């Protein structure tokens, strides 16, 4: 009984696998024409990129504003440095005056 069941199962599996197969040669390479055709078809209706002048002008204006801000910041930093040097000189003078009066 076990041999009949296992033989029947093996036969059913053999039939199922043989139904999935085909007689084409599996070593045959896929033709490039059939592989690339879907990609070529997908690219036929694509428009060429166009430069957006409004975006370019907005970017140029933003760059100009950024440059002005950098210049203003540099000027403010230089003024702060000068003020710090003046404060340090005043502190040194006050320290020297205090030491002389002792």
Automatic annotation (TrEMBL):
Q: Segment Disordered: which positions?
A: 22-41, 60-102
Q: Which domain of life is it from?
A: Bacteria
From which source organism is this entry? Paraurantiacibacter namhicola
Protein name (record)? Uncharacterized protein
Composition bias type Low complexity, residue spans? 60-78, 85-102
What are the protein's UniProt keywords?
Signal
Signal sequence span is: 1-21
């Amino acid at each position: 009984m076990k041999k009949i069941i296992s033989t029947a199962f093996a036969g059913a599996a053999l039939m199922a696998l043989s139904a999935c197969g085909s007689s084409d040669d599996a070593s045959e390479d896929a033709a490039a024409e059939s592989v690339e055709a879907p990609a070529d078809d997908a690219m036929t209706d694509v428009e060429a990129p166009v430069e957006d002048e409004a975006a370019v002008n907005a970017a140029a204006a933003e760059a100009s504003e950024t440059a002005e801000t950098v210049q203003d910041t540099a000027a403010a930093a230089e003024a702060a440095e000068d003020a710090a040097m003046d404060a340090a000189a005043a502190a040194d003078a006050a320290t020297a005056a205090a030491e002389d009066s002792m």
